[in-house]
Structure formats: structure tokens, C-alpha cells
Design a protein that fits this description.
This protein has 16 helices and no strands. It is mostly helical. It starts with 15 loop residues before the first helix and ends in a 7-residue tail after the last helix.
């Protein structure tokens, strides 16, 4: 059993609440675009909704990081979980695109608190000494998203009875309830364990934060448009388009396990993403597109987890909340900028290769991740 210097076992990290908080991910990512279409919106409105979500995280990450360090991981998780429940309830009550915008903005605030608190908690209980614990965190999020994926066939069945919009709203209320249930499983407070790590290397931390920004920008340029692209290019129904993602689920269950905090691993993940994006753009069939989507997801899982693993090594423990707040704010700022532009680009996959190329070049400067 691996232990930190504070005698905290990395095998005892309690991520049950995080699994439940991650469940709405599949619901929002895969079903929301078509709900926006039901409300009369189009690709620009889809991009704006996701952009507002990311913008909310950008605006609140710094405050969230300070709150996590001062109030503690457990309190921040509780506040974030309550905000997530409120956001899902608002989606359940929505009847216009503007309501979706407000709900996604609130969900972004919730995400800011939850994700900063969880990654600081993981650092507390042994992430610096055992980087694979960040992989465990990513896998926990993936398991939650997979569980939340039950909403996809549920939406299909309910939509045949009551229509897609009503089915979406009903499921939103269910996820609001699940977020409240998660509050029962919050882990104990651990911020006192952070004091064991006292080193801060500002230059390296800044370099990692810049890499996170570029990765977020790339993801924002194409991520919000994948399902609308499949729907429009291949004339697929919403549920057929979603089914094409199923092979990529395995990437998020296994990809984080391949991550390590070094440049070679990050470069390999970015290279896989770049190759996949060109393949997605040129795919003549939805089935080939699905295979490249699998490769893209592996690349994202590896690169993003490796960056997570790297930052805590260069930030003093008492600043882990604030450090990861800045790191995630940069990532979300990039995603927000990309998402707002995504609905206006003729081929978002090709354009996303540009920030990935810049990321690869920037890795040369980050010599000691």
C-alpha cells in the first residue's frame, strides 16, 4: 500500500461523490445540442451555450481556488454540488435558449468549485508521490459519465412518448436529484495534508498553464460541433450520431492510465489528437469518423491527465487550490474562446490543429515537467 509522508494511503481516496457529480456530463454533452435545436437554435447557439459554460469557469476559477484553500476541499465540493443541482433543475424548467444559457453558466460555476476541490484533494492524499492517482480521478469522472450515459437511451424512449424536449427536461430533474444525493458521499477534509509539499517553481507552473490554455483552445474549436457536424454531414438522427461515440468511451476508461508527467507522453497525446482531427475532417463515412473519434479521445485523455499530474509537482501544497484554479481557468478560457468561434468555422477540425501545433512547439520550452 502506497502512503504519503503524512501517512495518507492513496488507495483510500474517496471519489464516490465525484463519480455522481460527473454523471450529468454525458447528458449535457450529447443531448443538449439537440435540445437547443428543439428550442429553435442552431450551431452558433450550441457553441454559445458551451462557451458560456466555459466562460463561467474562467470567471470563477481563481475565486474557487482561493475558496478551496481557505474553506477546505469538503466545503467547496458541497457548495459546488448544490450549484450543480440547481443548474440541472433550471434546465428542467427551461423553455427558451436563454434559459439554457443561464443554466450552463451556473453549471460552469459548479464545475469550477467541484473540479478544483477534487484535484486539490487528490494532491493532498498522494497525487504528487503517486501520479497515477490523478489517472484514478479521471477514470472516476469517466465512470460517472458512462453511468450518466443511461440518459441517452432513456431520452430516446421517452421522446417517443412525450417528445424530445419534455424527455430532456425530465432527465434534467433526475440529474438534479443525483447531484443532491452525492452530497451524502463527500470525502473528509484533507487540506492540512498539503503542507508536506513546500516547493513552488513559478516558471514551470506558468509553462504548464500555457499548455493547458492551448489544449483548451483546440478542444473548444471542435468539441461543441462534433454532434451537429455528424447530424448535418451524414444526415444522422441525434441518437445515431451519439452511438458513434460509444467506441471512444473506452479511451476515457483506459487512456488516463497511460499518462505520466513528462513531455514525451504529452507530445504523443497531442500527436494522436492531430492525426485524429484530420481523419475526422476527411472521413467519408460515419463509421470511419467513429474510429478517428476513438483515437482523438485517447489523445485527449493522455495529454490532459499528464498535465494534471505535472502541475502539483511545481506548486507548494498550501497553494494547490489556487494553482489548479489558475490552471483550469486557463484551460477553460481557451475552450471558451474556441467554443464561441466553433459555430462559424467551415471546418473546425482542421482549425483545431493550429493550437495543437503551438502546444507541441511550446513543449520544447517546458524541459522539466
Amino acid at each position: 500500500m502506497v502512503s504519503t509522508s503524512s501517512a495518507t494511503s492513496t488507495l483510500r481516496a474517496d471519489l464516490r461523490a465525484y463519480v455522481l457529480f460527473s454523471a450529468p456530463y454525458s447528458f449535457v454533452v450529447f443531448l443538449l445540442p439537440f435540445y437547443v435545436f428543439e428550442l429553435g437554435g442552431g450551431a452558433p447557439e450550441v457553441g454559445a451555450a458551451y462557451g458560456l459554460y466555459a466562460l463561467a469557469t474562467v470567471l470563477t476559477r481563481l475565486v474557487s481556488g482561493g475558496f478551496v484553500d481557505l474553506a477546505g476541499r469538503r466545503v467547496a465540493l458541497g457548495v459546488g454540488g448544490a450549484a450543480l443541482a440547481a443548474a440541472m433543475a433550471l434546465l428542467g424548467l427551461s423553455s427558451a435558449v436563454q434559459h439554457v444559457y443561464v443554466a450552463l453558466f451556473l453549471a460552469g460555476v459548479a464545475s469550477s468549485l467541484i473540479n478544483v476541490a477534487v484535484i486539490a484533494y487528490v494532491s493532498d492524499v498522494g497525487g504528487v508521490e503517486t501520479p497515477q492517482l490523478y489517472s484514478k480521478m479521471r477514470v472516476a469522472a469517466a465512470l460517472g459519465a458512462v453511468a450518466g450515459g443511461v440518459s441517452i437511451p432513456a431520452a430516446y424512449l421517452l421522446s417517443r412518448l412525450i417528445g424530445y424536449a419534455a424527455a430532456f427536461r425530465a432527465l434534467a430533474f433526475i440529474f438534479a436529484a443525483a447531484s443532491l444525493v452525492a452530497l451524502v458521499f463527500l470525502p473528509p477534509e484533507t487540506k492540512h495534508l498539503a503542507s508536506r509539499h513546500g516547493k513552488t517553481r513559478v516558471a514551470m507552473a506558468a509553462c504548464i498553464i500555457w499548455l493547458a490554455f492551448l489544449l483548451g483552445l483546440a478542444l473548444g474549436l471542435y468539441g461543441p460541433q462534433i454532434l451537429p457536424y455528424l447530424h448535418l454531414r451524414f444526415s444522422l438522427s441525434p441518437f445515431s450520431a451519439i452511438l458513434l461515440y460509444l467506441p471512444a468511451v473506452s479511451a476515457w476508461l483506459y487512456g488516463p492510465r497511460l499518462a505520466k508527467p513528462n513531455r514525451g507522453v504529452i507530445f504523443a497525446g497531442v500527436a494522436a489528437m492531430s492525426l485524429a482531427l484530420f481523419g475526422m475532417s476527411l472521413s467519408p463515412s460515419p463509421y470511419l469518423f467513429s474510429l478517428f473519434w476513438l483515437l482523438e479521445s485517447f489523445g485527449v485523455a493522455v495529454a490532459s491527465t499528464a498535465l494534471d499530474q505535472s502541475l502539483a509537482r511545481h506548486v507548494a501544497g498550501v497553494y494547490w487550490g489556487r494553482g489548479y484554479g489558475v490552471y483550469q481557468a486557463a484551460n477553460n478560457l481557451g475552450y471558451s474562446l474556441g467554443a464561441f468561434m466553433s459555430g462559424y468555422l467551415p471546418d473546425p477540425f482542421i482549425y483545431a490543429a493550429l493550437p495543437l501545433a503551438a502546444l507541441s512547439a511550446a513543449l520544447i520550452a517546458c524541459k522539466d515537467l
